[in-house]
Amino acid sequence: MFKKFKFLGLTAALLLALLLAACGGGENTDDSSDNADNGNAEESSGVELGESELEIPYVAWAGALARTPLVQQVLEEVGYTVETTQVEAGAMWSSVANDDASFMTASWLPATHQSYWEQYQDDVEVAGEFVAQAPLALTVPSYMEDVNSIEDLKGNEELGEATEWQIIGIDPGAGIMQNTQTALEEYGLENWTLTSSSEAAMLSELQTKIENEEPIIVPLWKPHWAFAEMDLKMLEDPNEVYGGAGDRIEAIAHKSFKEDSPAAYEVIQRLTEDYNTEMENELLVAINGGAEPADAAAQFLEDNPDLLEKWTKDLGE
Fold first, then answer.
1. Half-sphere exposure of 299 (CA within 13 A, CB side)
2. Spatial contact of 93 and 113, defined as CB atoms under 8 Å apart
3. What is the pLDDT of residues 274-306, one digit of tens each?
4. What is the pLDDT at residue 51?
5. Is residue 102 one of the residues assigned to a domain?
6. Which of 23, 75, 215, 258 is deepest in the core (most CB within 10 A)?
7. HSE of 101, CA atoms in CB hemisphere, 13 A
8. Range of 58's domain?
């Protein structure tokens, strides 16, 4: 009789253990399901916005006018509020270095903005590269056949008198203006004077001179719509005052930007991977044709929905 009850006790214990195991298995299954659901929720939300109000300073140079609204509109598509402010080159660099602005789209390194980089490099970092090689040089109309190098300007009385010994420049804070001043010293061009104005004023003067086939010398760079619209040539620069093959055009951000606004940083990384000279030229030609920079950017994104999708996928809230 004792053995019978013992057997029944063991059987009951075994059944109880099986029941508990079954219940435990159900709980594990539910946990896995919950974890899977949580994982899908995290994946769908993507990289978070972080600080959602961004400030982009820019200088009214042709390329910056093309790139800045494009980046702005992609960021707004993700969910950011973006303000852009036109400034001079020095203020563009200092505002990013001081973390008063998020990032900029118009750094020219290593030559043109070398002095700014040396001053602010401890506080900023490269967030992406728009153009790998962007040459800068003194530039003249191609009909000036006897002028092919900066060295040809030295002691050139005929050209000097025809141009009043002036090189027509842009805004005084621009790196290319600093390089041009250095070129005057490096090549012994004591008689020549660099005149400050603005890019728009310089280009207007250049177009007028070309219409009359008169000589003119200006500092210019590529990519720029002027080379598509006018027959120009860059002067040789044996001393490589302007950086030789060309500068890199990069996005420069404050060192806290990646942590502060992760999705915005990722947008810049993705966009600059695809951005190239051809894209910039497309935007520049549209703007020079009369389109507002913001409209040119919007049209580009409308014409390239695959790029917009690539640049924004799984980002934001």
1. 14
2. yes
3. 999 999 999 999 998 999 999 999 999 999 999
4. 95
5. yes
6. 75
7. 23
8. 53-134+246-312
- Same domain, yes or no, for 60 and 197? no
CATH number for the domain that contains residue 253? 3.40.190.10
pLDDT at 46: 76
Laid out side by side, the sheet with 247-254 consists of 103-109, 247-254, 124-134
d(CA 211, CA 6): 114
Residue 30 has pLDDT above 70, yes or no: no
| Residue type at position 98 | N
User: 154 and 281, same structural domain?
Assistant: no
Together in a domain, 128 and 262: yes
> Residue 216 maps to which CATH number?
3.40.190.100
- Write down the H helix ranges in the chain: 2-45, 62-78, 89-97, 114-120, 157-162, 175-186, 199-211, 226-229, 257-260, 262-274, 277-288, 293-303, 305-312
Is the overall model pTM greater than 0.70, yes or no?
yes
For residue 156, the one-letter residue type is N
